[in-house]
Amino acid sequence: MAELGTQTTVRRRLRHRGRLSQIPIYLGKQIRFFIYQSDWKVLPMATIVAALVGLVIRRDFLQTMEGNLKGAFALTCVAIWNGCFNSIQAICRERPIIKREHRSGMHITSYVASHMIYQFFLCLAQTGLSLYVMGLMGVQFPAEGFMTMTMVTDVGITMLLISYAADMMSLFISSVAHSTTGAMTVMPFVLIFQLVFSGGILPLPDWARPLANYTISNYGIKAIASQSGYNEAPMVTAWNTLQKMRDNQIGGSVTLGQILDALSDQDNQFLITHEDMEIIPSLTVGDLAEVWRAADQSLGLEDVEILHSMTLREALTALLQAQELEQLWLWEAVPATAATPAITLGDMLQALLEDPQAQPALDGTVLEALTLGQALDALDLEEAIQGKEEQTVNQPVTLGQMVDFVGNNQALQAMSDREFTFTATLGDILSLFGEDNVKTLIQEKTAAASRVADYDRTIENVLKNWEALILFAMVFAVLSVMSLEFIDRDKR
Questions:
Q1: In terms of Cα–Cα distance, which of 147, 153, 166, 155 is closest to 217?
Q2: Distance (Å, rounded) from C-alpha 333 to C-alpha 321?
Q3: Rounded distance, CA 403 to CA 405, Å?
Q4: Are strands 365-367 and 310-311 parallel, antiparallel or unpaired?
Q5: Which pLDDT value is given to residue 1?
């Protein structure tokens, strides 16, 4: 009898061991699952997923604004995928065993705590493997970090927290599901919700934006985008699109009357709103000189001929054909007589052009070609403007003043049927204004328009998102405990 009592006492001690002492027991069970039940397969799966994602984001992640957001979304997807599939079947596959052990004295808190420890180290291993493989695929992480010593560590911490939060979420789903089939059926819907309502790559309508606050992916994307310096990077999409359109022809024909009608439209909101906008600023002599130098550098204006080389024959022929001098050439230099007709100045000039003896003289050059650069050199323009760089040349002209001038100008109104034709490629216009200047302007303006306060590179931003991810993990762990506490009431 004494011997039977001793065995009963030992059995009771085993059945009712404390919560802390039960954790290593169940932790060892998880390790055996990892080794003998093929749970180790999640590591090579994580490696493959990381390799594929690395090939996609390696070119522009941590380089451009679009690349940073795309990279943040992709890394968050990797982490959520890893975490979800680590534990989605962890509890539901041994649900009958858990029920028996719970009735035999197993503490649910000890069981869930063992899972939390085991899953943390599993997520840590997956994160390390993922970052290592991405580095092999060509993802360039800067050496200097923002929150820690290296950027790899910064991103690694965030990915670990995302993965762990997703892991605990799946653990909760597994604790609720009654079979592995049920858990795997729910899993795609959970992933879709996490990724679609992340509020990152996919813009959300107003009614759906509050849902982003209940997704792990939302805080993961914010953390990685903040760490990567999203708001400090250039926005390149607009410029790249413009570059692809370099050969596109723009322009066409328009009459002066159409331009005047557009400028005189009283209902034109742009003209009304920008009436005081300066379209011709006040310029100094120095400003005009800089404009000239820039135009000459891009267009080669100094080589433009303002006077062409001309022979005496060409000059006299041009004078003879000028309509403005027609009355002059009809003037009779020699009046008509009974024997001879009248001889006009035009006749005399035409006879001179046809005189064989005058041909050598007519072929002589009377006007040498003159380029714009030669004319400016003759005027010694650079010396003329020295000391006058700050002198104002004109008063500023507003859009309203220009519209009034055009509307009241009778000379322009009389030429309303005159047609202007302008055709050029987009590349020609970019060259005119300077491609580097246009590129800088477009990237700065689009980056400013795309700035997101939640992605500011501040310690507060990163810590706030880290705290949210930790909170998600803790809440789902507690929910898992609460769900399993009712496992004895499960009749299935």
A1: 166
A2: 18
A3: 5
A4: antiparallel
A5: 43
Instruction: Annotate 390-402 with DSSP letters as a single string.
Output: T-B----EEHHHH
Neighbours of 67 (CB within 10 A): 20
Query: If we measure between CA atoms, which residue out of 46, 23, 201, 5 comes closest to residue 111?
Result: 23
Q: How far apart are CA 315 and CA 322, in angstroms?
A: 11
Give per-residue pLDDT as tens, 307-338: 677 787 888 788 778 777 777 778 777 777 77
Contacts of residue 266, defined as CB under 8 A and 6 or more positions apart, other chains included, come to none
Q: How far is CA 309 from CA 46, 318, 472, in A?
A: 77, 14, 84
Average pLDDT over residues 274-297: 74
Give the confidence band of 348 by pLDDT, cuts at 50, 70, 90: confident
Listed residue (158, 236, 235, 221) closest to 454, CA to CA:
221
Residue 251, strand partner residues: 423
At residue 485, does pLDDT exceed 50?
A: yes
The fraction of the chain above a pLDDT of 90, given in percent, is 28
Structure tokens at 263: 């400028």
Mean pLDDT of the chain: 82
DSSP letter string, 473-484: HHHHHHHHHHHH
CB-count exposure of residue 219 (10 Å: 0-12, 13-18, 19+): buried
Beta bridge partners of 423: 251
Three-state secondary-structure class, residue 423: strand
Report which of 378, 355, 406, 386 is spatially closest to residue 307, judged by C-alpha positions.
Answer: 378
Closest CA to 22 of 137, 104, 132: 104
With tokens 């400090």, the residue in question is 232
